[in-house]
């Protein structure tokens, strides 16, 4: 068996065709020795003399080259200890490895020992079968070999071995290092300095072409390339150029080896470091430019963005608990006691509710939402929406309500910014426990003191197992039926009012907050006939309504793409509206319309709160501007796209979704004279991008603004309340336009928007008309008209609303 008898070196070559088939041929002892530190973490104890001797060994799923080293060592170790589990592969003992008296494998470092040679065998994890090699390392028997790859491989290997034997210094097995074991930089330089590469056989050329295809599509490789500032967009081009270079320069042994590996991950892992060397030399400008871009899109360490807040010693109090447990109530107590306080709300409606409540209790409080600013003389307190938080003002106490919204995919950044940036001695966070861990982490980054106050629900929420048995005639006074689309809301309202004596109020997202508030008051007030509320998930956050029972009309909703189950946390939030302390129904009930949705409801209520791992971030304009300076001739939408692709974030943060902003930016492309900053700010205006009327007006506002003419609202005012759904939709959309104008007037120089008063009057009038319309609304939702005509319903039989039937049929 011995080959190169006097050699203190041996070679192992590992070939991994798939995860269970590993071939060990030869390895250069020197190589193992020098690389032993790289897997030092995998062995312990007993490594005193020979670093490969270990009493236990874990075979990691490592990159190919590490496996190579590991295998070589494992062979030695198994020889001595037989410790390898057979899960990974069976090790055929290396009969040629001698043991000394105490059973240790001879330490090669002693020098002159010649017995560590010729380690030729192949291992198969599944079968345990091995392929034996004779001492010239040519296959002597090849069990269960089916395809020709192995044969090619074997002959390639045999050739390589022969080359090494014939080559310089090979007589004793020294000097030859297989390409897989060689330094990639060296390999790259060799390729680069070669005049002409080897002429490839057609079949090899095909294999190599496929291999480059795999490299170019490899997510692993494009991720790794980011480390040397090869961006994802440039990566395929870089691979393409590398491929050209490679085909021109490739040497016989590299080509042969790659062909052996085939178009697989192992080949990508082998090629990648060479590719890196190539890129570093070939694309210095691209790398520099991308590096500049990446560095300007650095969103890591967001707590350092607020040096003033960092200079303060803030006290953070987390009011942590489920819905209706008194979190907001307790935080507001501190807010009202403070000399100067700020309350940050997730919704305009809730900001208004707190504004009213606090003023009613004798604490002067102003209101600040995106659309309106109500300054109460002598007030030191402000109730605002979280997006309007000022990180410049100093406060004694600030309250950030619904803090779990930090994890909201689109709006989360506003909560994160408030928490990181508020300059307040005391900050009260109210929310469920889902973001508690991440708040702990953020506080340890910011150096703020965190106090936790845990709450329990005042009264447990009771699930009514009977459900409404699919029949809306089982609705009772004090019920809130929750549906997840405007269309369903009107269908339910119509059905209830048609088949029962109840009257319904409605609350949904597209209604202005004034109208929602009017509807909520109508429902809360016991002295009228409106005793049922039909609402969307817009009712879910923080509001205090006189709800006895929350009935889920359905437990799935359309997410803009497909119908998906409503999330457990949302179900909890919504169901939590029932039975508020202090309301006329302090015992909360919840159920579903249909029996077959009940299990899902119970499951959601039972589920523990998520443990959120990341919260949202979005760059300030200044960051986007800095990023823009690294690019030329790109639109804002492209800029944001690129920012999203290239920004760096810490593990606790994600970049908030901004498709909506990009769409608005695209629409505004036709407005030419806007500065980048104005354009950026316009994109945050509250507009329904699916409403062409609203989009038209936004573009008009932006055009007038860019031409420095006073921005006016040219829109006919409706004369009367709606008498059908089209008119109702028109009112909703007109209110949005006015609301957008008001928002712009708050976010840009006021003198450019001189018609604020007119807009406010229009907004109030439209909200009034909407309220009037909703009281009498008993028509089919507009979108229904485009569908097939419905069969006539029998007057006395309640029929389930059609959209639900369709959903269930699906
Ligand atoms: N100590 C208290 N005394 C009187 N009323 C209270 C007290 N605590 C809470 N309430 C009332 O109970 C209701 C629910 O309280 P609160 O709004 O603070 O709950 P929450 O935990 O913030 O709920 P959510 O998660 O839904 O926002 C409110 O109407 C509030 O005024
Ligand atoms: Mg609350």
Automatic annotation (TrEMBL):
<keyword id="KW-0067">ATP-binding</keyword>
<dbReference type="Pfam" id="PF12513">
    <property type="entry name" value="SUV3_C"/>
</dbReference>
<dbReference type="Pfam" id="PF18147">
    <property type="entry name" value="Suv3_C_1"/>
</dbReference>
<dbReference type="InterPro" id="IPR014001">
    <property type="entry name" value="Helicase_ATP-bd"/>
</dbReference>
<feature type="domain" description="Helicase C-terminal">
    <location>
        <begin position="467"/>
        <end position="620"/>
    </location>
</feature>
<comment type="similarity">
    <text>Belongs to the helicase family.</text>
</comment>
<dbReference type="GO" id="GO:0000965">
    <property type="term" value="P:mitochondrial RNA 3'-end processing"/>
</dbReference>
<feature type="region of interest" description="Disordered">
    <location>
        <begin position="780"/>
        <end position="810"/>
    </location>
</feature>
<keyword id="KW-1135">Mitochondrion nucleoid</keyword>
<keyword id="KW-0378">Hydrolase</keyword>
<dbReference type="InterPro" id="IPR001650">
    <property type="entry name" value="Helicase_C-like"/>
</dbReference>
<comment type="similarity">
    <text>Belongs to the DExH box helicase family.</text>
</comment>
<feature type="domain" description="Helicase ATP-binding">
    <location>
        <begin position="308"/>
        <end position="424"/>
    </location>
</feature>
<dbReference type="InterPro" id="IPR055206">
    <property type="entry name" value="DEXQc_SUV3"/>
</dbReference>
<keyword id="KW-0325">Glycoprotein</keyword>
<dbReference type="InterPro" id="IPR044774">
    <property type="entry name" value="Suv3_DEXQc"/>
</dbReference>
<protein>
    <recommendedName>
        <fullName>ATP-dependent RNA helicase SUV3L, mitochondrial</fullName>
        <ecNumber>3.6.4.13</ecNumber>
    </recommendedName>
</protein>
<dbReference type="InterPro" id="IPR056377">
    <property type="entry name" value="DExH18_N"/>
</dbReference>
<keyword id="KW-0539">Nucleus</keyword>
<dbReference type="GO" id="GO:0005634">
    <property type="term" value="C:nucleus"/>
</dbReference>
<dbReference type="GO" id="GO:0005524">
    <property type="term" value="F:ATP binding"/>
</dbReference>
<feature type="compositionally biased region" description="Basic and acidic residues">
    <location>
        <begin position="796"/>
        <end position="810"/>
    </location>
</feature>
<dbReference type="InterPro" id="IPR022192">
    <property type="entry name" value="SUV3_C"/>
</dbReference>
<keyword id="KW-0547">Nucleotide-binding</keyword>
<keyword id="KW-0347">Helicase</keyword>
<dbReference type="Pfam" id="PF23703">
    <property type="entry name" value="DExH18_N"/>
</dbReference>
<dbReference type="InterPro" id="IPR041082">
    <property type="entry name" value="Suv3_C_1"/>
</dbReference>
<dbReference type="GO" id="GO:0045025">
    <property type="term" value="C:mitochondrial degradosome"/>
</dbReference>
<keyword id="KW-0496">Mitochondrion</keyword>
<keyword id="KW-0809">Transit peptide</keyword>
<dbReference type="GO" id="GO:0042645">
    <property type="term" value="C:mitochondrial nucleoid"/>
</dbReference>
<dbReference type="GO" id="GO:0016787">
    <property type="term" value="F:hydrolase activity"/>
</dbReference>
<dbReference type="InterPro" id="IPR027417">
    <property type="entry name" value="P-loop_NTPase"/>
</dbReference>
<dbReference type="GO" id="GO:0003724">
    <property type="term" value="F:RNA helicase activity"/>
</dbReference>
<dbReference type="Pfam" id="PF00271">
    <property type="entry name" value="Helicase_C"/>
</dbReference>
<dbReference type="Pfam" id="PF22527">
    <property type="entry name" value="DEXQc_Suv3"/>
</dbReference>
<dbReference type="InterPro" id="IPR050699">
    <property type="entry name" value="RNA-DNA_Helicase"/>
</dbReference>
<comment type="subunit">
    <text>Homodimer; in free form. Component of the mitochondrial degradosome (mtEXO) complex which is a heteropentamer containing 2 copies of SUPV3L1 and 3 copies of PNPT1.</text>
</comment>
């Amino acid at each position: 068996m011995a080959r190169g008898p006097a050699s203190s070196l041996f070679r192992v070559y590992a070939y991994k065709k798939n995860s269970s088939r590993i071939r060990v041929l030869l390895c250069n002892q020197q190589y193992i020795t020098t690389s032993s530190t790289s897997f030092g973490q995998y062995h312990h104890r007993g490594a005193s003399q020979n670093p490969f001797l270990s009493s236990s060994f874990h075979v990691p799923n490592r990159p190919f080259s590490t496996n190579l080293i590991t295998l070589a060592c494992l062979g030695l170790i198994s020889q001595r200890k037989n410790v390898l589990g057979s899960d990974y592969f069976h090790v055929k003992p290396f009969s040629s490895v001698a043991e000394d008296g105490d059973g240790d494998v001879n330490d090669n470092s002693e020098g002159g020992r010649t017995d560590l040679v010729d380690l030729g065998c192949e291992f198969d994890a599944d079968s345990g079968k091995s392929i034996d090699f004779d001492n010239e390392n040519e296959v002597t028997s090849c069990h269960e070999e089916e395809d020709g790859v192995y044969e090619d491989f074997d002959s390639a290997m045999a050739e390589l071995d022969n080359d090494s034997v014939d080559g310089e210094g090979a007589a004793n097995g020294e000097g030859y290092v297989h390409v897989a074991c060689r330094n990639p930089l060296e390999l790259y330089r060799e390729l680069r300095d070669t005049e002409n590469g080897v002429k490839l056989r057609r079949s090899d050329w095909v294999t190599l072409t496929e291999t480059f295809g795999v490299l170019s599509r490899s997510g692993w490789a494009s991720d790794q390339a980011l480390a040397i500032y090869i961006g994802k967009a440039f990566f395929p081009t870089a691979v393409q150029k590398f491929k050209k270079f490679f085909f021109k320069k490739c040497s016989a042994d590299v080509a042969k080896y790659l062909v052996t590996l085939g178009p697989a991950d192992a080949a990508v892992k082998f090629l990648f470091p060479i590719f890196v060397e190539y890129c570093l030399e070939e694309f210095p400008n691209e790398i520099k430019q991308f590096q500049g871009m990446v560095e300007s899109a650095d969103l890591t360490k967001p707590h350092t963005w607020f040096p003033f807040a960092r200079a303060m010693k803030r006290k953070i109090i987390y009011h942590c608990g489920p819905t209706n447990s008194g979190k907001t109530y307790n935080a507001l107590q501190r807010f009202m006691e403070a000399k100067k306080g700020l309350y940050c709300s997730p919704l305009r409606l809730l900001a208004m509710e707190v504004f009213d409540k606090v003023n009613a209790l004798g604490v002067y409080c102003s209101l600040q939402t995106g659309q309106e600013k109500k300054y109460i003389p002598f007030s030191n307190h402000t109730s605002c929406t979280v997006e309007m938080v000022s990180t410049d003002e100093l406060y004694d106490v600030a309250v950030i309500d619904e803090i779990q919204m930090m994890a909201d995919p689109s709006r989360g950044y506003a909560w994160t910014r408030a928490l990181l940036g508020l300059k307040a001695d005391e900050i009260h966070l109210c929310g469920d426990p889902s973001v508690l861990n991440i708040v702990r982490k953020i506080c340890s980054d910011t150096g703020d003191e965190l106090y936790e106050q845990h709450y329990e629900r005042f009264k447990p929420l009771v699930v009514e197992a009977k459900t409404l048995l699919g029949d809306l005639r089982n609705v009772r006074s004090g019920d809130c039926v929750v549906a997840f689309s405007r269309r369903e809301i009107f269908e339910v309202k119509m059905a209830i009012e048609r088949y029962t004596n109840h009257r319904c109020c409605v609350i949904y997202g597209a209604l202005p907050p004034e109208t929602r508030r009017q509807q909520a008051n109508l429902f809360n007030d016991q002295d009228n006939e409106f005793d049922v509320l039909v609402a969307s998930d817009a009712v879910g956050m923080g509001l205090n309504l006189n709800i006895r029972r929350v009935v889920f009309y359905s437990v799935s909703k359309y997410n803009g793409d497909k119908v998906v189950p409503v999330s457990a946390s949302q179900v909890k939030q919504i169901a939590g509206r029932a039975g508020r302390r202090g309301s006329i129904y302090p015992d909360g009930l919840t159920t579903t319309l249909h029996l077959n949705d009940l299990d899902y409801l119970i499951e959601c209520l039972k589920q523990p709160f998520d443990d959120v791992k990341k919260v949202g971030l979005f760059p300030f304009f200044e960051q986007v501007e800095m990023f823009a300076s690294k690019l030329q001739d790109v639109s804002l939408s492209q800029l944001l796209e690129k920012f999203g692709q290239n920004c760096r974030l810490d593990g606790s943060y994600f970049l908030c979704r901004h498709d909506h902003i990009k769409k608005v930016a695209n629409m505004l492309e036709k407005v030419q004279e806007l500065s980048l900053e104005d354009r950026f700010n316009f994109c945050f205006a509250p507009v329904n991008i699916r409403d062409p009327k609203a989009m038209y007006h936004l573009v008009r506002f932006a055009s007038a603004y860019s031409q420095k003419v006073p921005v006016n609202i040219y829109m006919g005012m409706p004369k009367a309340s709606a008498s059908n759904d089209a008119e109702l939709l028109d009112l909703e959309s007109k209110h949005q336009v006015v609301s957008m104008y008001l928002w712009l007037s708050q976010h840009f120089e006021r003198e450019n928007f001189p018609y604020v008063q007119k807009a406010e009057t229009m907004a109030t009038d439209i909200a009034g008309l909407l309220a009037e319309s909703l009281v009498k609304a008993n028509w089919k939702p507009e979108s229904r008209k485009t569908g097939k005509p419905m069969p006539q319903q029998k007057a006395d039989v309640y029929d389930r609303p059609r959209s639900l039937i369709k959903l269930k049929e699906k």
